[in-house]
Design brief:
The protein is an alpha+beta fold and 108 residues long. It has helices at 9-17, 22-29, 36-42, 48-60, 82-85, 88-101; strands at residues 34-35, 64-69, 75-80. A hairpin with a 5-residue loop joins strand 2 (64-69) and strand 3 (75-80).
Amino acid sequence: MAAKKYNCPVELTLDRIGGKWKVVILWWLRGGSKRFGELMQLMPDISQKVLTSQLRELEADGLIERQVFAESPPRVEYSLSAHGLTLKPIMELMCEWGKVNGQEHLSF
């Protein structure tokens, strides 16, 4: 299968982190590893199905890592990969823009 071609770098970036939830997931992982349930609590409007799908896509794109601990019951944690950490400056700029331009919509 041939690699997908993009007409500009922004298309590639949006293909990897676009949509309603991917950047939000990456944002919450920027501070350290999280379990699935923790992510569900941090994003109460996301469904389990969508979170699972988005985590799989982010992992397939190499932006997050999934670590399974051999415990009973099994414990799984998600964290940013080294590649995912390169998005941190973009996420911080998006956060600043949201704080400056959307104060009346923020709940924190």
